[in-house]
Amino acid sequence: MIYNPSPFAIVLFVAFVLFVLGLSFYLARRASSAEGYYAAGGTIHWAVNGIAFAGDYLSAASFLGICGMIATAGYDGFLYSIGYLAGWIVALFLVAEPMKRLGKYTFTDALDSKFNSKGIQLAAAVSTLVVSIFYLIPQMVGAGVLVTPLLGLPHWVGVTIVGIVVTLIVATAGMSSTTYVQFFKGGLLLVCSTILVVCVLNRGLETSPSHGGTSEYHKFQNLTATVSGNGLAVSDGYTLEGNLADNTYGDKIKFVKLQKDGLTSFWKMTQTAAGFELEETLSVIKKADGTKLYNGAPKEEGKFFPIGHAKEIIMNGESVTKTGSVGPWEYLGLVEKSTMILWGKQFISLGDDTAYVYYQKPTPGKRVLRPGLKFKIDNASFTQKLNFVSLMLALFCGTASLPHILIRYYTVPSQSAARKSTIVAIAAIGFFYILTLFMGVGAMTNGVINITDNNMSAPLVALSFGVGLFALISSLAFATVLGTVSGLIVAAAGAVAHDLMDNFLGMGMDDTKKVMAGKIASVVVGVIAIYLGIVFEGMNVSFLVGWAFAVAASANLPAILMLLFWKGTTAKGIAGSIWVGIIGSLGIIMTSPSMYSRYGLDPATAMHSLDNPGIISIPLAIIALVIISKMTASDNEGLAE
Amino acid sequence: MGHGPAVKLGKDNAAEYKTKLGVKMFFAYTVIYAIFVAICVNSPTTMESNVMGTTLAVTYGFGLIVVAIIQALIYNHFCTKAENEMNK
After folding, report:
1. What is the C-alpha end-to-end distance of chain B, expressed in Å?
2. Which end of chain A is more exposed for a tag (fewer CB within 10 A), N or C?
3. Contact at 8 Å (CB) between A507 and A497?
4. Neighboring chain B residues of A427 at a CB cutoff of 8 Å
5. Confidence of residue A235 (pLDDT cuts 50, 70, 90)
6. Least confident of A40-54, A348-362, B26-40
7. What DSSP designation does A239 have?
8. Burial zone of B23 (CB within 10 Å; 0-12 exposed, 13-18 middle, 19+ buried)
């Protein structure tokens, strides 16, 4: 085990969840009307709403996923911070005030405000549901990741706890409760993340991170080996079972399988004049019966250790083993001049068994602090470059199309309040995203990363400063998931009860029935989210959110922007654009290399090599809107401006 | 039907001015963002260059975040001014 549950952390976590639930029940009385349930009665102060925006937005993807990706792939994780924040510019300058002016409870209302079209009501409601569910997946995965070290429970239990607690919250109080929970959580997340970054800077960089002298970092071994007949003579008591050819794996980088004390280990081989130099790796063997061995032993035996260190630190032109306390800019300057250890991953087939081997990759700091380690852009093919641009486009366009963000514009009393709350959100979120780089690099260099699942990197940095900070940060991260999932479920419930049942099907429900329908829809969406959270275990949550952004940007943004800025837009054009956006983006995602890997197929055999659909599906949705609107221009005759 | 705002909104005479200002500021930011993406894709090693003590990528990335905040504040200043003058 890399980490063990602590009673203090458990108590703090349970207290936190109970507090959130208590707050929800207390605020439940505000939700007696449909306005109260879906839009908090439009009475929330803009400053509160702004921080609540931050609470909604700084989801598991931001706190867990981005920091985890930075910890293992450097600057490429920070690209998400930049893209997510840039998306708020679209929200502020183009969407905030018109959305407030046009809508009532849901974004469908805004799209349909001019037309009263059944086609828009159906398409927009389905889009809200699809995007919300896509966005729910990474949140639930994040929840599962968190409870393992916090409570010592398996992934599926974490997912189920979040599902049940959130469904209780939403089915109880709706938007009022969600807003105040988000405000509380968003504020605390900013404060605690700042404290964590101050701690990281105060510690500085170390080549052998000792957590302020409280722990000893694993010393990676190097062995020497000489070829002996068909076998290998290895130092330090390691032996080769069988001949060398049968125990050597990999193409460009070679690994050899050795035994010692009954444990199997893999070593990276480098040819020398005398034979080989062997470098220690980490490995996870998956046996044919499904059991896993971590560095040759079951997980409980604790042979698998956390990693993350600087190979060489250059300070004032000299190589040092530790820097001591440094300022934020100096910290990044030191990383830029030093050499970091990142980790490569190699798949190995062992007959019926399989293994993943994780090996050290010394990487110059200036390479770590620029894009290209995860996303292929150096000497990249056209498709690889397209993938990168597509991701950055989806992040830029996605924010202003997320249903749970859009519905927050209905919780404030005026258009100027909508604008001001967006500005508060940009300031708060922007500040947080700057912190992510320090938290991520902090994880990269503090010997805390679980290389099999980088999502926990930020909370584990906190653990290196003591269980108190870890418990607080983890509870907050869990509350982050709770809050975001609450917002998403309210949005999805609104789509079902208000857009589909009341408007599209014309069921003519009164306020009480609308709220009841919303609560029942919340439970159903909650159950779906729990299932998907379990299925997608192990994927980086930020990567998954990238997909949600792409679907949202394809399905919703063209419709919103064209409605606001092109008078020729027709109802059929909007509905058609939404359907093309949904089908186009989902189609590309479902046939992508990443999903092939998820299906258990060879990603190389995927139908195309595009992992991010935005660059294709967003323009497709715009083209569909323009063509259909031109073809149905007569529908707009006699329509009020 | 449940259309129309959740709360009753007064007429906003500054709406057109704010929309035009928003579009201009959006395009200004989009250009800065597009240049960032273009450098990343076409010349990733340029992003390694040392600018202000760290890489260009870090400086530019932080710059994008800070510019967003500054633009937001400027936008709010002019919108509030227009609302005060035009909605008297």
Report:
1. 33
2. C
3. no
4. 69, 72
5. confident
6. A40-54
7. B
8. middle
Return d(Cα A145, Cα A65) in angstroms, integer: 11
**Whether the predicted pLDDT of B13 surpasses 70:** yes
Tell me how many degrees the CA angle A488-A490-A491 measures, rounded to the nearest 5: 65
Let me know: does A173 contact A31? Beta carbons within 8 Å: yes
Which amino acid makes up residue A441?
A: V
Place of tokens 């029935």: A513
Q: Does a structural domain hold residue A100?
A: yes
**d(C-alpha A426, C-alpha A313), whole Å:** 35
Instruction: Give residue A1's pLDDT band: very low, low, confident or very high (50, 70, 90).
Output: very low
CB A633 within 8 A of CB A567: no
In a domain, A161, yes or no: yes
In a domain, A223, yes or no: no
Q: Which chain A residues contact residue B23 at CB under 8 A? A: 93-94, 565
Mutation target to probe the B interface, by most B beta carbons within 10 A, among A46, A367, A369, A410 is A369
The pLDDT value recorded for residue B4 is 44
Question: Pick from A102, A366, A396: which is nearest to B33 by CB?
Answer: A396
Supply the mean pLDDT for chain A: 85
Nearest to A518 by CA among A504, A542, A505, A501: A501
Q: To which H or E segment does residue A234 belong?
A: strand A231-234
Could you tell me the two tokens for A271? Answer: 């040819």
A177 has a pLDDT exceeding 70: no
CA distance, residue A37 to nearest chain B CA (Å): 11
CATH code, domain with A119:
1.20.1730.10
Examine residue A360 and state whether it is found in any structural domain, yes or no: no
> What domain range is A200 assigned to?
7-205+380-636
Predicted complex: ipTM over 0.95? no
Residues A361 and A220 sit within 8 Å (Cβ to Cβ): no
pLDDT of residue B32: 97
End-to-end CA distance of chain A: 64
Return the number of other C-beta atoms located less than 10 Å from residue A415's C-beta: 24
pLDDT digits (tens, 9 = 90+) for B60-79: 999 999 999 999 999 999 99
Cβ neighbors of A197 (< 8 A, separation 6 or more) are A328, A435, A438, A439, A442
Give the pLDDT of residue A640: 58
- Compute the nearest-CA separation of B24 from chain A (Å): 9
CA distances from A311 to A212, A328, A554, A577 (A): 18, 20, 43, 52
